[in-house]
Structure prediction request, 176 residues.
Amino acid sequence: MKANKDNEAKVGPSDVRRYLDYDPETGDFLWKERVGGFLGWNRRWAGKRAGYVDRRGYVNIDIHQTTYQGQRLAWLYVYGEWPRHEIDHIDGNTTNNIIANLRAVTHTENLQNTTARRHNKLGLKNISVRKGGYGVSFFERGKPLYREQFSSLETAIFVRELLAPNIYGHFDRKAQ
Prediction:
């Protein structure tokens, strides 16, 4: 069962701190020892790394039969409240839940800190091969902010690098 806003309301910071230890330097969660009648559980799990990496590359941890994303639990553990929107991994590594690598962002801001899409033949963010040249495109909420075609790849890269900081700000992860 995936976490959503309703499920997040069921688990608070005190619950997370009761079951888990979080190391903000490594981003790791470890299961805490449980008190009272949990000897078998403690032998098997206490002190061990909590969670697993899902097929999309995110750390997930199950608490009370509900799955929570590790980056959201880290935010809750450190700041004492659930993030209002999304959590962005600044370095793009979705398993890196070091608190200094996490920031609360809107969905639009989170999309700005991405790499080139998988189907992009060049592997360059915002640049595509088009008939007769190379296209540079920036979109926001599905609507084009900028679209232009250039005859050389070098020019397209130069224009992308020139425009990206103004469009993405500090969320830009460069062309690659």
Q: What stands out?
A: Strands lie at 20-23, 28-31, 52-53, 59-63, 66-69, 86-89, 102-105, 127-130, 133-140, 143-150. Residues 111-171 form one domain.
